[in-house]
Input
Amino acid sequence: MSSLLRAFSRLRAQNLFTVIFLTISLCFAFPTLTWAESSGLGVNNGALAPCPATNNCVVSQNADVIHTIEPIVYHGDRNTAWETLLKVLTVVPRTQVIEKTDNYIHALSKSRIFKFVDDVEFYLPTDEAVIHIRSASRIGEWDLGVNRRRIEQIRLALQELNI
Output
């Protein structure tokens, strides 16, 4: 009976290993998989969408304490600030601008290993000298602070370029 129990335990361990191996393999086999579609993006009534209840989003408008981030303040010409932001986004790793208007930018930023997609939005209102920001992961509950760090790096790059 004990040899049967050992054989069964070994079989369960092998099956668990197989499932883990296949899961990881699929993640690497389909690196461009977005895992989810974006929704609720854009500017609505002069504001970017609020963050969901999860901890993987930051926004500079209408946010609670957990999700709030300061907008990017610029000094000087509005168009120069906007063009400088677009230039900075071209050098942010694994980030691509997919929509651009005279007051809104939507970019996608992918994680390095599993290619998880984050939506990064910028809104330039005509009546304020700020760029409002929203950066949100499409899936999961926690992003280990990636969205906040990305926005702060963009803010720092813009400050170094004196906007």
In short: The chain has two domains: 1-30, 38-160. The two ends are 76 Å apart (CA to CA). The domain at 38-160 is CATH 3.30.310.80 (TATA-Binding Protein). Confidence is low (pLDDT under 50) at residues 19-35.
